[in-house]
Specification:
4-stranded antiparallel sheet; Aminopeptidase; 2 domains; 444 residues; alpha+beta; Alpha-Beta Plaits
Length: 444
């Protein structure tokens, strides 16, 4: 009966967070995370916790709750979940993306996987610990942070810069990982130990205006921009097998699969034979990626455009910096490179945490008891998370949760920023129990 009650509690909280529609489109006035901070403050408020709210700009609030430790020299742990979600097109969904409905044992809605499930389960686990009288040696912090889905400027970035004492911890757990990968030697549980970097840029293409009724031999910026996009799409950076990828693949797959996936000569062609979710991950984890995503240009249908801008999402591998990417762009664009202007508006190098840490050992002990026969494997996420702010500040930060076998890796990958996001109640219960066990093991 306790499991059913706990499952209902975390499911109800998750549904509330989904229904709040904290959609972050990248603009300062979007997000409205204060709505979910209100819900979480009310939920945690009757447990006697120390709760603070921080707003970088109006409506973009983050919530911090603490259980203070008795020993200032003991390790500290931060459980961090974000409250914002990415935009959604309801036409691709089977159910209301902001309905928070319980259907066949699953909660449906935008953010159910990324990452409101963990934000909710962290809050429930945190409250359970406080209500039980948990008094650890090391301090436990819960952070429901704003703006993760748009670079973190109004969330984790702001807090680290302006409210560091409120959130800084030796160890940090955030999204995601923890889905069970079945293998012959037992389930493998990926732990996000690092993430690719980002180099978001605008490529401005110049032309000469003219009347569109006379297009012959015009200097049309849109035509040149189309060629820029084509070259970026066809560009093929070299395959790079780094240590985290090799350890993950060799820990999960048999030799007939791990061999090609760790061979720089074979990997590209082998990806064409894999299921699409795994193929995309394998490619992205071993290559610098270039994705043109936004294009602006033109003023009127009958005017030849004299300027077009293209925004490109570039994700960098460990060890790469801006100079490396600038050389790749020059290589990809060839003779067009001289006639465009490239300006970066987000340059973040890859970050990683070591696995020889007390937190890793704690996760091994706790998950070994929770999922019989399981073991941890390190993983590199190809997207950005707020862990990068804390790694750069000196924390060991991992992405982890714990999910049931009902949520496969293929489904997990497809639902991230995709259609029909949903998470099962068993996974919510497992993650809730996980946070309590980690806190008692690491901080007690």
């Amino acid at each position: 009966m306790a499991v059913i009650t706990e499952g209902a509690e975390v499911a109800d909280l998750l549904a509330h967070l989904i229904r709040n529609e904290c959609v972050n489109d990248g603009s300062p006035e979007s997000g409205h995370e204060s709505k979910s901070v209100d819900v979480l403050a009310q939920y945690l408020g009757d447990s006697g916790l120390d709760i603070e709210r921080y707003a970088a700009v109006p409506g973009r609030e983050s919530l911090v709750a603490r259980i203070e430790g008795s020993d200032p020299s003991a390790p500290t742990l931060l459980l961090m979940g974000h409250t914002d979600v990415v935009p959604v097109n309801p036409d691709g969904w089977s159910h209301d993306p902001f309905g928070g409905e319980l259907i066949d044992g699953e909660i449906w809605g935008r953010g159910a996987v990324d990452m409101l499930n963990l934000t909710a389960s962290m809050a429930v686990g945190f409250k359970n610990l406080a209500s039980s009288g948990f008094r650890p040696r090391g301090t436990l912090i819960y952070l429901a942070v704003a703006d993760e889905e748009a670079l973190g400027s109004w969330g984790a970035g702001h807090l680290i810069e302006h409210e560091r004492d409120a959130v800084m911890a030796d160890y940090v757990i955030t999204e995601a990982g923890g889905f069970q990968l079945p293998t012959a030697s037992g389930p493998k549980l990926p732990v996000i130990v690092g993430e690719k970097g980002s180099y978001w840029c605008r490529i401005s293409v110049a032309g000469t205006p003219g009347h569109a009724s006379q297009p012959f031999r015009t200097d049309n910026a849109l035509i040149h921009a189309a060629e820029v996009v084509r070259r970026l799409a066809e560009y093929r950076p070299k395959t790079e097998i780094h240590d985290t990828w090799r350890r993950f693949i060799e820990g999960v797959f048999p030799p007939e699969i791990s061999g090609p996936l760790t061979d720089e000569e074979q990997l590209w062609d082998f990806c064409g034979q894999l299921p699409v979710g795994l193929a995309r991950q394998a490619h992205a984890c071993t290559h610098t990626t270039f994705a043109p995503t936004i294009i602006h240009g033109g003023t009127k249908t009958n005017v030849i455009p004299d300027e077009v801008t293209i925004e490109v999402d570039i994700r960098t591998l460990p060890g790469q910096n801006a100079s490396d990417i600038e050389r790749m762009l020059a290589d990809a664009l060839g003779d067009l490179h001289a006639r465009v202007t490239i300006s970066s508006f987000d340059d973040n190098e890859s970050t990683a945490s070591p696995i020889d840490s007390p937190l890793w050992s704690c996760l091994e002990r706790v998950t070994g008891d929770m999922v019989q026969g399981s073991s941890l494997v390190p993983f590199l996420t190809v997207g950005a998370t707020d862990a990068r702010f804390f790694r750069r500040a000196g924390s060991v930060a991992y992405g982890f949760g714990l999910f049931s076998q009902r949520l496969s890796f293929e489904d997990y990958a497809a639902m991230f920023h995709g259609n029909d996001e949903r998470v099962d109640i068993d996974s919510l219960v497992m993650s809730t129990a996980l946070w309590e066990l980690i806190a008692r093991d690491l901080l007690a």
